[in-house]
Amino acid sequence: MVDPAAADPARAVRGRRPVWAYAHVPHADPRDPLPTIRAALEAHAPGFTDTVIAERGMSAAQLGAYNANYVGGDIASGAMTLWQTLARPVPRWNPYRTPLPGTWLCSSATPPGPSVHGMCGYYAARAALETWPKADRPASAHLLEG
Known about the structure:
mainly alpha, 4 helices, 0% strand, globular
């Protein structure tokens, strides 16, 4: 479960806070995950569900239909073996670069993989900046330089 307003207070509006959660379910499970998530939250924070104003859920089957990369609802884009951690999506020195000029891959299909939210994009942006002459880099590039 995530409370994005904890890191970015601007996401809380008039005392309301968005929360985001997901549950591990069987491959391509067609069932609505909301009852499972709600029960887990209620077990650890009694009364939580009484504070919910609105909710939306997607089953694993719906996630797979929504995005072809989420086969069976797998948001990790495949096995998280040691090999996949190091060599996804294909084994090459720069996994963020694609054969298309100026096109970079920054999804969880790239290292360090899912569950390290945002780091795939960060590393892809750094890799892209390395190909640009310093004089032509965007003004915000300094935020990514190590």
